From TrEMBL:
Entry keyword set: ATP-binding, Nucleotide-binding, Transport
Any one GO molecular-function label of the UniProt entry: ATP hydrolysis activity
Higher taxonomy: Bacteria, Bacillati, Bacillota, Bacilli, Bacillales
Protein name in the entry: Metal ABC transporter ATP-binding protein
A Pfam family recorded for this sequence: ABC_tran
Length: 257
């Protein structure tokens, strides 16, 4: 059970800087993600978005500054089950991959039940419930590799949700997904958010994303904007990109798959 109040910062980043060797990638980042928010983190290629996520996930240690997760300094934080992560590269199964949607989602429980334990009836019900939550019930028995990129991403969201995370972090989940499917996908995320899950979404897809998130942060080595979507549309946000607006407002992703 979650005993945090609505104003609590689930993520609290203070004065964070990060360097790969001598190369500075993040400078003096201050960012708070409140419980119940749906934050879109945007920025051009190479602006440090994935690096920041890796710092939040404890995979990289900041050169300076501190990160607090659920009120605990990250180096003492040991409730990683509260955080679900869906990566950019999740949708890379080929059509022969021998696992059904049900099996892939069940894998999300292994952290809880152990790799070789049998799933109880309760576990199976939970798996079915999250598959339903992401709108994939009719595909439950289908092989994951036979699904579209957008459908696969829904399955990976279900896999992350099955262990009941309070925070879901998504790194470019709509890469390779067509605009209509991406919109449906964001609407689904918005529904999850209304059910109480805090979301941090990294994306290039500014146009579609801002219709669904309730806060936006713009990163380009430094944090240039952090606020609500209305202020963002008043152009304070996009002006942070110094002429890269056009690129950001299209659905082109030079690094896309
Ligand atoms: N392991 C690494 N070693 C050295 N430099 C790196 C490493 N990973 C990333 N970088 C550099 O750090 C910068 C930020 O990279 P990062 O992947 O965080 O950006 P990003 O905003 O996620 O980019 P994209 O939108 O293209 O995925 C880039 O210039 C990148 O080349």
């Amino acid at each position: 059970m979650c005993k945090v109040d609505k104003n609590e910062n689930i993520i609290d980043i203070r004065s964070l800087s990060f360097q790969y060797g001598t190369r500075s990638v993040l400078e003096n980042i201050n960012l708070q993600v409140k419980k119940g928010s749906f934050l879109g983190l945007v920025g051009p290629n190479g602006s440090g978005k994935s690096t920041l996520l890796k710092c939040i996930l404890g995979l990289l240690q900041p050169t300076k500054g501190k990160i607090t997760l659920f009120d605990q300094p990250i180096n003492r934080f040991n409730h990683w089950e509260k955080i679900g992560f869906v990566s950019q590269k999740a949708n890379s199964f080929n059509s022969g991959f021998p696992a059904s949607v049900f099996e892939v989602v069940s894998m999300g429980l292994f952290r809880k039940v152990g790799l070789f334990r049998f799933l109880t009836r309760q576990h199976k019900e939970k798996v079915k419930k999250v598959i339903e939550l992401v709108g994939m019930t009719e595909y439950t028995k289908q092989n994951i590799g036979e699904l579209s990129g957008g459908q696969q991403q829904r399955v990976f969201i279900a896999r992350a949700l099955v262990s009941d995370p309070e925070l879901l972090i998504l790194d470019e989940p709509t890469v390779g997904v067509d605009i209509r499917s991406a919109n449906n996908f964001y609407a689904m995320l918005s529904d999850l958010n209304k059910k109480g899950i805090t979301l941090l979404l990294v994306t290039h897809d500014v146009t579609a994303m801002t219709e669904h998130v309730n806060a936006v942060a713009c990163l380009n080595k430094q944090l240039h904007f952090h606020g609500n979507t209305r202020d963002f549309h008043d152009n304070h946000g996009l002006s942070a990109f110094h002429g890269q607006e056009v690129h950001l407002l299209t659905h082109n992703h030079p690094g896309g798959e």
